[in-house]
Records
---
Amino acid sequence: MIVRIMGEGQVELADSHFTELNKLDDELLAEMESGDESGFRRTLTALLDKVRQLGTPLPDDALEPSELILPSPEATLDEVREMLSDDGLIPG
């Protein structure tokens, strides 16, 4: 799956990694619902770091359609709320 981190670029992630990423996504959703700003910031950073660690970066000139778009590390709680679906940032 091709994943874009806003402001950074794209990575390709194997589907097998999404179980691990969904755990962080669930934590992020819970922190957002409770208004836990520091927890939200910590978990968003952990989620994006894990995507970078597990993914293979695509060249900057690649024009692949992104199947998933994640917020930038500087995104606010309100900005991320606008990006959410019922499943969080990561479907499943």
Note: The mean pLDDT is 91.
---
Amino acid sequence: MAEPAMSVTPYWELTFDADGDVAGPERDRLLADVTRRGVRDLVVFAHGWNNDRSGATRLYSRFFAPFPELAPTARLGYAGVVWPSMRFSDEPIPDFPRSVAAGTTRRPALDKDTRHALLETFPGRAIIVEQLARLLEQQSREEAELEEFGRLVRLLVEVVPPGPQALFAADTLAEGVPQDEPEMFSGSVAAMCEEFAQALARLESPDGTAEFTVPNPWDGAHELLRQGTYYAMKRRAGTVGERGLGRVIGQLAGAAPEVRVHLVGHSFGGRLVSFALRGLPEGVRTVKSVTLLQGAFSHYAFATRLPHDARAGGVLQGQQNRIDGPLVCCHSSHDSALGTLYPLASRMAGDAQGLTEGFDVARVLGAKWGAMGHDGVQAVPGTRAVKLADALRGPLPASGCVNVDAAAVVRRGGPPTGAHSDIVHRELAQVVLAAGRVR
């Protein structure tokens, strides 16, 4: 019998904290039951932005639903990764009720749902959250108040020593040094807020009227908080992947060496499962495929050298070789993954009118900006490119990096949810099965 609110069985959940430590009873249940349940292929899915178990479980249930019909003879098992991430409640989510997808408080104030999410995501920092909310509510005209707001944002998202998360924010390295620190954490807060506010105003007034108004710097402050939390989630996803999921897969390989593992990640979940490769114990070859759906991290992360800087490379260079099968990245020029995770960056990427000219996304939000959600894996020799229709007809390459143009899916609403999500889930499930050669 399926687990409550879950469309498939057997299903396990693995819950990790911000430092990558797994809930022991959940891990032990998976290790003990996977062989007893006769599982041959285990599909492990990591979400990108849900910060509660019910939301993640609902996503997993919908995504996993087509698998039994598509592979009726396969001995499949399913696992969902739950990790402490968050999203701002005023961002719309396709196919989610209004009460879940959006708040009613207009920028720059913090609505109660966003406050709650911040408290859940950054435990022990309630005083900071309340101070941030108060400053956004008051909107003082004093520059010192903006500077104080920036200081509090940095305190909110900083890693408390000796926590491990500081090691997992970068996507690229230059001569072994992480290229990471975004200017939003080091420059003048007042100037940064003004820059954010101007970019937002131009995007929201494409008729040019924004040129004749003075943007509210507290709109920029609200955006600074949003981008700061996403930066923290990016860092956290890498931490949970390498220190958490990678180790659990190693333990699973010891307890059930015959089980084939297929990792799937959406958005920042793609970063999580990719960093899990770096956390695999030496000699573990049980990961048979990795599928990234709108991966929200640098498309150069797996590159040995960057095309514009021979001294630099990706932090995951060579990790695709730890997969006993392919690394498949589903991407599209129509993607909206960054619209959920990096809303401002996403909208700038699609700014055909040049409304935000002069706003340097890489400088403000972090070095070597580029998302697999838009371009697939880049600068990795031998990477192959196929259309979604060809991927579904198969077979996909048995190894190496594979970019799948999933534009047809994204036009219908976008993985993993959308206006026609049953179709979307079915086609993406077929890609996962094809990548892992699951029958």
Note: Confidence is low (pLDDT under 50) at residues 94-105, 336-343, 346-356.
